[in-house]
Amino acid sequence: MPTSFRGLPPVVWTIFAGTIVNRLGYLVTPFLVFFLAARGVTGTDTSYVLGALGAGNLIGPAVGGILADRIGRRPTMLIGLIGAAAAQGALFLAPGVWTMAAASLLISTAGSTVSPAAYALLADAVDSERRQRAYALFGWGVNIGTAVAGVLGGYLAAHGYWLLFAVDAGSMLLYAVVVATRLKEPARAKTPKPNDGQTDEQTNEQKDGKKSGKKDGKKAGIGYGVILRDRLTLLLLPLFGIQLFVYSLTEVALPLAVRDSGLSPAVYGAMAAVNAVLVVALQPFVTARLAKLPQLVVQSAGSALIAVGVALTGLADGIVGYTVSVVVWSLGEVVVAGIAAGVVANLAPAHARGRYQGAFSWTWGVARFAALTVGVAAYTTLGPGVLWWTALVVGSAASAATLILAPRVHRRTAHELVA
C-alpha cells in the first residue's frame, strides 16, 4: 500500500471497502436511458425521468448533512442506502413515466444523503493533517468501483436489465450491512457556548464562521445557518463549484464532441477507460508526493490543469487529440483528489461537520446539474467553441481566486492544529 494511505484508522478502511462494494453496483444510472427506451419511454418523457434524477442530487446532500448532525452518521448512511435500494426496485416495477420519475427522485435523493454522513465520519476519525489523504482514499475507492462497474454493466445489460437493478440494490444493501456491523457512531460534539474561553484572535476568526460568537451560540444547531454565517466557506464553495462544473463537462460535453467528430460510442468508452486507468494507477502515489505541499496551492494547480485539458477537447478531431485532452484533465483529477472535501472539513466546527459536507456535496450536485443543463445548452446553441473557451476562462479564474484565499484558509486551520 502506498505510504500516503498508511496509518489511517480502521474506520477509514471500512468506508473505503464499503465504497468499492457500493460503486461496483453503480449500474442503473449509467444505463437508465437504455432501460427507459426498452420500456418505450423516449423523447420528452425521458427528460422527465432524468430531470427527477438530477433534482434528487440537489435535495439529498442538504438533507443528509442535517441528518448526519442531528441523528448521527451511521443512521443517516443506513437510511440512504436502504432507501435507495428500495427505490431501485420501485423504478424497475414502475408502470408509467410519472411513477418512474418519482422512483428516480427517491433513488438520487436517498443515495446522495450517504456522502455527507460518510465524509463527516471520515472527518471525525482523522485529524486535519490526514483528512485529505482519507478523502483521497475514499475517492480512489469510488474510481476503482466505477471502473469495474462500467465493464460489468455492459455485460449485465446484455443479459437483462433486471440484473442491473438486482446488483445495484444488492451492493447498497451489502454496504448497509458493513455500516451496521463494522462502523461505530462517534461521540456527538457539543454545540459551543458563545465566546467560551476564546482569545481575541479566535474571536476575530469567528467572524469567518468557525464558532461565530453569541449569535451562532444560539443558532448553531439550526439547519445551515452556521454555514451561511461563515464568510470564508461561502467564498470557497462557489469556487469549488465552478471547478467541479468544468470537470463535469468531461461526462456531459465530451460524449457530444466525440459524436460530432463522427467517431463511434466505443471511442468515448475508450476515453473513459483511459481516465479510469490513469486515476486508479496514479492517484495513491501522486497523493503521497503532494501531501506535504500547501493543499489549496495544489488544488489550484490541479484545477487549472483540468480546465486546460477540458479546453483541449475543442482542438481534438480524432482519437489522438481526444486522448491527449483526457490525459491532461485526468492528471488534474489525480492532483486535486480529496483536497476540497478536506479543506471544507477542516473549516467546519466539530458539531457541524455533517452540514458542511452536505453543503459541499450540494455544491457538487449543482455543478453536475449545471453541466447537464447550461453546459449542454451552450454546446448546442452557442457552439462547442464557446463552451470550451468558457471552461478554460472560468476554470482558470476560479483556480486563481482559490489561490488568493489560501492564506485566509491557512490562518483558520492553523488554530485547529494548535488546539
Instruction: Give me the Rg, rounded.
Output: 21 Å
Structural class: mainly alpha
Summed over residues and divided by their number, the pLDDT gives a mean of 85
Query: What's the count of strands?
Result: 0
Q: What's the SSE pattern?
A: HHHHHHHHHHHHHHHHHH
Q: Rough shape?
A: globular
Roughly how many Å apart are the termini?
A: 31 Å
Report the sheet-strand fraction. Answer: under 5%
- Major beta-sheet overview: none
SS summary, helix count: 18
- Measured as a percent range, the helix fraction is over 70%
Poorly predicted tracts of residues? 194-220
Give an overview in words:
By secondary structure, this protein is mainly alpha-helical. It is built from 18 helices and no strands. The protein is globular, with a radius of gyration of 21 Å. Mean pLDDT is 85; it is low at 194-220.
